[in-house]
């Protein structure tokens, strides 16, 4: 949803720096949720994002079949009369896929953002990989023996874990937003009679942009 200019201005500080930007935790958790959208699992879509100490993303992953095991042939159902047709035998969890797809030599001392608290199998691999911190969104399976075992191992191995409390319930990605970005500051005395826009920290005459009257961000206010 677009904001009106007053709302946008109120979210800028004295040097017009935008103050409503995402913080790191929200950004990386949102990425974990975004990559989960790639999952083919009809019940649970989980994503994970691994970040190093300089806030660089070193890996993302989501729950899926191993390479070469076709999404269209291997089973996605949780239970089946034929035990060989249950997904748990095949699906790689997001945490493991992320660790194995890292774009650096190792993930020692990194932190992992993940939608669900890791299971015991992932916990083993997380510990062995050297990841030191888990930030998770949901612990809805905290009663399960797998989760209890995972926490037991994390505690023993000094892997920290903390639940993320989202600042916003939802983050909406509006692909059309890029077509009406820019905050107008009509009170600024620039060389043109037209109002001026601030975009990416620079003053830009909106003569080169769309007219504020036609700007969707204003029309939507
Ligand atoms: Zn797992």
Automatic annotation (TrEMBL):
Cite the EC number.
3.5.4.12
Q: Which GO terms describe its biological process?
A: nucleotide biosynthetic process
InterPro entries the record matches: APOBEC/CMP_deaminase_Zn-bd, CMP_dCMP_dom, Cytidine_deaminase-like, dCMP_deaminase-rel, Deoxycytidylate_deaminase_dom
Q: Which UniProt keywords apply?
A: Hydrolase, Metal-binding, Nucleotide biosynthesis, Zinc
MF-aspect GO terms: dCMP deaminase activity; zinc ion binding
Q: Which cofactor does it need?
A: Zn(2+)
Q: Membrane-spanning residues where?
A: none
Chain ranges of the CMP/dCMP-type deaminase domain: 23-161
What function does the entry list?
Supplies the nucleotide substrate for thymidylate synthetase.
**What is the name attached to this protein's record?**
Probable deoxycytidylate deaminase
- Say which species the protein is native to: Odynerus spinipes
């Amino acid at each position: 949803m677009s904001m009106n200019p007053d709302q946008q201005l109120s979210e800028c500080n004295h040097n017009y720096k935008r103050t409503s930007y995402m913080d790191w935790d929200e950004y990386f958790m949102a990425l974990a949720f975004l990559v989960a959208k790639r999952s083919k699992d009809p019940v649970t879509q989980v994503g994970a994002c691994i970040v190093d100490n300089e806030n660089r993303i070193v890996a993302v992953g989501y729950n899926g079949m191993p390479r070469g095991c076709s999404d269209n042939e291997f089973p996605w159902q949780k239970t089946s009369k034929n035990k060989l047709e249950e997904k748990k035998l095949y699906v790689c969890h997001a945490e493991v896929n992320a660790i194995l797809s890292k774009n650096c030599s190792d993930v020692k001392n990194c932190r992992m953002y993940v939608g669900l608290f890791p299971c015991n199998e992932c916990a083993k691999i997380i510990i062995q990989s050297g990841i030191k911190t888990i930030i998770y969104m949901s612990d809805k399976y905290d009663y399960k023996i797998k989760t209890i075992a995972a926490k037991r191992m994390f505690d023993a191995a000094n892997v920290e874990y903390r639940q993320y409390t989202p600042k916003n319930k939802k983050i909406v990605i509006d692909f059309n937003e890029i077509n009406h970005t820019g905050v107008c500051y009509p009170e600024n005395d620039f060389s043109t009679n037209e109002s001026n826009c601030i975009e990416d920290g620079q003053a830009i005459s909106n003569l080169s942009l769309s007219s504020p009257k036609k700007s969707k961000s204003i029309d939507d206010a």
